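Reposting from the mailing list since nobody answered there.

I have sequence plus structure tokens for a pair of proteins and want to know whether others read the tokens the same way I do. The first protein:
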Amino acid sequence: MINHQVLLASHVRIFSSSCRLSGSLNPNAAMSTFGAVVHPSVAEQKHALRSRIKKELRSLPADQRSKEDTEIQNFVLNSPWFKSAKRLCAYISCDALREVDTTRILSEILKNKTPGVLDHLDHHTQLRKKLYVPRVEDKNSNMRMLHISTTEDLVASSMNIFEPSPTDASGNHREDAMLASEPVDIFLLPGVAFDRQGHRLGRGGGYYDVFLKNYQELAKEQKWKQPLLIALAYSVQIIDENEIPVTDNDVSVDALVSPSGLIPITPASFKDM
């Protein structure tokens, strides 16, 4: 029998390229021999920031991190926007990467209600939520979000990363969020650093940015409401405005959930959250 809590807590996500710098003069800029200011490249700035935040995450005491995990997950689970969401894409947290834990959130989504059946105890209860989780396809920033209904739908990749298998036990292809007939309501996103303007610094692979841009374009073509992009962040991951270098390829989030609660950013988050 698979221990679902241990399995969920074991999953890994490896994610996050180059035109426009955001903010004022970077303090890491160097002077050339002619006295002109030479800016580090965007990639260099992002690498330095990732290194700094990762160090701070490693230094976060285990009891403090556990406390923040509990606070963040409690807030999500008790939020009206989570309770009313029917279709969600969510990452499977990886302890080694110091990602905000999503174990309880995923367990709640995968609770043992029969798909398509209303709770007979409460006629107001919505149909079972549908969950899509990431599957990395290659090293070229290609990722899919595939539907799972149980943790037993997850398999270990060659890198010992747990992801949804591409087919189910009957050999049928799993439903892909990009090919689904109904829209995703909410994306719960990981990352390394965030600011209160909604900028997100990922892990450098570009997987989420590519997928989210494609999904937003799909929603536009289908005339669907755009999904809410919600990042989960420890206190040390929320940094000052203009610290995150921004490029045309980066996708911003609508809101953050931190240990202190919701930080709405976009008009959509103020309206729907």
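The second protein, same order (residues first, tokens after):
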Amino acid sequence: MSSSMDQSNLTSTVIHPTAIISNAATIGAGVSIGAYCVVGDNAVLGDGVKLMSHVVIDGHTSIGAGTQIYPFAVLGCAPQHTRYAGEASTLEIGENCIIREHVTMHPGTAIDNMRTIIGNNGLFFAGAHVAHDCIVGDNVIFANNASLGGHAKIGDSVMLGGYSAVQQHCRVGSHCMLGAHSLVDSDVVPFSIAVGNRARLSGINVIGLARRGFSDESVSALRAAFLMLFNDADIFATRVETTRAHFADVAEVQDMIAFIDDAGRNGVCQAAKR
């Protein structure tokens, strides 16, 4: 336990006698650490964090307040990258996340920004994986064995179906849903659904948006914009400019266009042919 812990922390924190906790680790108030957990020198556990049992927290890893971590999760071990040379990169996990059995998350590398960042209120089902240098937003759900390659960026309120995978350097925009077993190899625009072995867009995430309080007008505008962007016969650049102008007053559509403007090396995921 950290030598900086005050007496109130000591009385409110519960550590199983079989757990191995570095004296250099920083442990917040009200933390619970179960049997056979291992917490390394540079770990920081926020207030109320709960490690069930057999959890490994390694490297320069910080866990936000209220996060619960289930057995056999391994967080902060060296990234799976041939160019990682032991640099003191970080894994930063937000508050009130639920990280289920066998989840793995890796810190960043010097070839990117040295950080892997996980937002607040994430739910990571058993076997999910977040690779080095990823950025994951708030309120995400990763179903069983959903995986991110290195440098992926996932927006807020994204749902990844079971066994889905996002290739290195790809982005998935906010409020998207990926179908089970889908492989993402290009950027998925916000508010959409992508499905398939090589993922293709199937439409707007209407049900998800309704559940999150988006107005009927906004959803209707997004559906119309989607048709204009992905089902028209013009070249894609022309469709983008037409949609930008036509929906100039719709913030959600402009967010989608801005996402397309920032597309990187993998391009933008297109709609499935009907």
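Reply #1 (J.P.):
I read it the same way you do. Residues 1-10 have pLDDT under 50 and may be disordered.
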